[in-house]
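Quality-control log, excerpt.
Job 1 of 2 completed; input and output follow.
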Amino acid sequence: GTLNVLQSAVRNNVQAVIHSSSMAVYGLDVTRAPVSEKHPLDPQDMYALSKVQAEELCQWYAEHYGLNVAILRYSGIYGAGKKEGAVAHFVKNATSGAPLEVSRNVLWDIVQVDDVVRANFLAFKKINSLKFAIFNIGSGQSIMVIDLAKKIMRICKSASKMDVKSKKLALRFTYNISKAKKVLGFRPVSIEQGLKRYIKNIV
């Protein structure tokens, strides 16, 4: 898919492409935190590998065809229209009274979908001056999944119980979004604000 987009851009004299990537390119064994765009890539599954390969294609086309490319590596996205993932699952169960199944030893970054849209718009405005650039797009705030579940239950005023489990492979992921802030002017909402906005719109 990415190759078709890049080839079509060159054939039709399109000057710029914004590519959606993922925090998954960094892998699970994140030893240097917070993770910046310079962190080594370590894809752990085919999805992450496909993202890395797509990024390499983008860089090749930028270098050989002069295409201006911005790569946005999203953290965990939640918000309107997204029915899968931890946040959607927690909100659904918290509002229905069902128990929330929670992983104890997972720390990660999540980003509201409105901020993802905003990041794309900001990148589009700067694209001609970027040439080739990669940006982490997240909230810049790490949160334990168990604390995320508690926060959602509090906002929903839920009486649901938590079923806490320990994952064999713990994830400790803190995102550095300072480059996106400096270059793009990206200013995401806090996790608390994002969750309240999301829950208000669906409850």
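Job 2 of 2 completed; input and output follow.
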Amino acid sequence: TTVFLALNARSGPLARIELRRGLLAALDLAQLARTAQLREVVPAGSLIPPGLIGHDPTRLPAGARDSSQRTDRLVLRAALWNDGSERLARLADALVAMLAARGTRLELVTDGGEAFYGVLAAGEADLALCRWTAEYPDGDAFAHGLFDPDFGLLRHFASPDLARRIAAARGEGDPLARDLAFREFEEHLERGALLVPIFHEPF
């Protein structure tokens, strides 16, 4: 299971990559992980958790970023997953406060699980705080489950190019080639400032 922040690169203000990069640079990911009880979770350097095909153990949690980075007067629609978990509630509060201190105001467009899925299905959020659990031990459970162009949770957040990359990775029958393909998928997420992992939870 991975908890992460995803950014909408297809529509809205975050379609501009410089704004996505600035927003991520304003985040103190270590502080967010501490807010979520660091002793009970593992800070994440990748979307795909350890033990799954596609996990790259050399991808370490992001260090301190530019805490002085500001995104003044930016107002973003935020879909925040809420399943009643105290840990996620604290994380959401910390995220809202952290971005507000850097000049970005979040307008919450969800108030529960069903609303969360509906907002994402309609492409009506600029960013989403998500929790995702793999149903099988393969990076495809994250890549396809989140970004499938027809049914993926975040299908309205990324470009068709990402879907093509995922389709190519899914078609790899050789385990080593498949592992490499999903590692490249992770690199694409990072280069495009599309998503930042925060922590892994025990299954």
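Post-run check on job 2. The longest strand covers residues 74-80.
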